[in-house]
Amino acid sequence: MVTMDFSQRMGLAPDVKVAQVESIDIALQNALWNVLTLKLFSSFYQSKEYFPDMLAGSNFQKFAELVFSEFHKVPVDTIPYKWPEFKKAIRENFFKMKWHRVYSFLEFIVGLNYNGSEQILVEEFNRVLERENSAYRFVSGKVTPITSSDEIEEVEKAISGSDKYTGARTHLQTALGLLTDRENPDYRNSIKESISAVESLAKKLVGDDKATLGQALKILETKHNLHGSLKSAFLTLYGYTSDASGIRHALLDNAAAPTKADARFMLICCSAFINFAIDSVED
């Protein structure tokens, strides 16, 4: 069970992140190791009947030499004699590595394409990277950022913002939780919560529980130099969620369900707007 500390329970810090950037939690690290174990290491084979665990002469002898000499850059005569011992040594190193070295190691393994494993490894690595909410994916054999740290900082800043805007903060926390739920993500309702955070802020800015986003934008436009194009852009985005076929209404039979990318975009966009609005008002 995941527990929240005081700051998280009070809504002063997010209890989950938009994505894992410059970090790898234990669930993700375990999952990545499991891919290596199940999709690569399980194919170990030694043709010598009386030495089934011997690394020398096996189909992984060259692999072991490459890992020791080319990645870890240690003497190859320190390679363990038996396959289980070699795998144990690699495992220990894997779980001691800093997050960026883990990704470097995975890149190295994929690049080897050992026994034709590149495609299945990339597919499985990307599957668990997405499931565990990593900010990286394999693209053309290289680990590539898919979410910028600036975008994530916008969300975290909005969630941990001023106590005067607890309604907006609560909606954003809910949106983030629905987006990052590993077992049952709900992208449709995550989008609803993101836009509800903006509406909550609008009511606070206008001082009227019945205020609309349009009214709040008008105040920002006239009193805080909100650019007209930015106002129009956000009204258009808001309209996407509110019209007859929008996210707030029941899905039509032929309508596409919102994706994780849709929900993440809306959360980041709404968070950025909330930060902009609050900064404009409080400056």
Description of the molecule:
The protein is an all-alpha fold and 283 residues long. The chain has 12 helices and 2 strands, in the order H-H-H-H-H-H-E-E-H-H-H-H-H-H. The protein is elongated, with a radius of gyration of 25 Å. The model is unreliable at 249-253 (pLDDT under 50).
Features of this protein?
283 residues, mainly alpha, Four Helix Bundle (Hemerythrin (Met), subunit A), 2 domains, two-stranded antiparallel sheet, 12 helices, 2 strands, elongated
Order of strands across the main sheet: 1-2
* Rg from Cα: 25 Å
> Mean pLDDT, nearest integer?
82
* First-last Cα distance: 41 Å
Helix content class: 55-70%
The oligomeric state is single chain
Question: How is the main sheet built?
Answer: 2 strands, antiparallel
Q: Supply the number of helical segments.
A: 12
> What's the shape?
elongated
Q: Report the sheet-strand fraction.
A: under 5%
Secondary structure class reads mainly alpha
Number of strands: 2
In the predicted model, the low-confidence regions spanning at least 5 consecutive residues are 249-253
In CATH, the topology of the largest domain is named Four Helix Bundle (Hemerythrin (Met), subunit A)
Overview in brief:
This protein has 283 residues and is an all-alpha fold.
